[in-house]
Amino acid sequence: MNSNVIIACDFASAKETYAFLDRFAEEKPFVKIGMELFYAEGPSIVREIHRRGHKIFLDLKLHDIPNTVQKAMAVLSSLDIDMVNLHAAGTKAMMEAALQGLTREDGTRPILLAVTQLTSTSEMRMHEELLINGSIRDCVCHYAQMAQEAGLDGVVCSPLEAGMVKKHCGKAFLTVTPGIRFADSRVDDQVRITTPSRAKEIGSDFIVVGRPITAAADPVAAYLRCVEEFA
Ligand code: C5P
């Protein structure tokens, strides 16, 4: 099934992840692999999930000097992933280097997204600890614009910020949004959330959904509900 619903596979081991994916007999959902799983299992888990026919968003949020990020991105690109990300705060030079590193010999490359401000950073901490003035919204727009100027494909942001990013950077600039909950499901630790259908209306191109699917009694039914609501 070709859908822009990405399941956040926040599991601690390959074994748990494969047991979860085995439940999807017909669908091959797009999956997100984050730091916990990647650092526990290494590149082999990416190769295996790719071999099983899933598209992969590798959510490692790189942030280092341009040369290091360029070389790391070249390694990740060779794993045949479909989407990867970095911190826009690493500067335009770092983002441009990342793009170069990601581009394969045949000219293809995974989608490259920038993280603007983490949704866990409050405006007060951004002012006091990061010494960034202005509002979070201004900062998100500014970082999104820098990412666009560096040639990136889009940003990871809150679904509630997706419309603002589209207005600022244009429709073609991708927005990939976590913080998704069904209208009748638990909120967990997420704060700025919305439903799949509302995320679509606001302007999300892809939604990233974790616990509403992974912790559901019937994960396949929850995934299909998400796909339908986001369609
Ligand atoms: O379980 P839940 O649906 O909250 O999972 C959301 C996923 O998106 C998690 O993997 C989380 O780390 C990630 N994420 C997020 N907020 C961000 C960036 C990433 O929730 N700003």
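^ cytidine-5'-monophosphate complex. The chain has one domain: 5-230. Strands lie at 5-8, 30-34, 56-62, 83-87, 111-115, 154-156, 174-177, 206-209.
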